[in-house]
Recover the amino acids of this structure.
């Protein structure tokens, strides 16, 4: 079993699609280990997305991520990390395949509804970022 982090981003929370997105992932066999609403500040959003600090879209990204409430979930199943990346689809919904979460719910390549961890290391770090010292059962 493997765990990964899913964030339902401010655009999707504002459009009230959180229920549909959570239904989608649980229907695909993920177990919901943890779930909490959060509100990032530009500082905490900047910390979370440190890896992108040199990118031209960084400022826009942290402003967006701090623009409203988000919903953070820890999801568990076999191959959760790889499979959730496939389920969310490409960063830009124009490139996302039919049936993916971003194809259905993303507005554009910035306001793209969800985040999912992209490797075992980032999954560990991102889960610890939002759920420090939490024992999941
Ligand atoms: P992800 O792993 O598929 O979420 O994509 P990345 O790690 O490359 O980028 C992180 C997030 O930054 C994306 O999910 C988007 O919200 C945003 N982003 C990525 N590329 C762009 C871009 O070219 N322009 C803008 N405005 N935002 C972007
Ligand atoms: Mg990424």
């Amino acid at each position: 079993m493997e765990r990964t982090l899913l964030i339902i981003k401010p655009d999707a929370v504002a459009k009230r699609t959180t229920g549909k997105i959570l239904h989608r992932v649980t229907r695909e066999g993920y177990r919901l280990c943890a779930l909490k609403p959060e509100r990032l500040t530009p500082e905490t959003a900047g910390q979370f997305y440190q890896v992108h600090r040199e990118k031209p879209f960084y400022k826009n990204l942290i402003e967006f991520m701090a623009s409203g409430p988000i919903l953070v979930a820890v999801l568990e199943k076999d191959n959760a990390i790889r499979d959730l990346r496939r389920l969310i689809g490409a960063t830009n919904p124009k490139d996302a395949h039919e049936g993916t979460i971003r194809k259905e719910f993303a507005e554009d390549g910035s306001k793209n509804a969800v985040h999912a961890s992209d490797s075992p290391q980032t999954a560990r770090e991102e889960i610890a970022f939002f759920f420090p010292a939490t024992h999941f059962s």
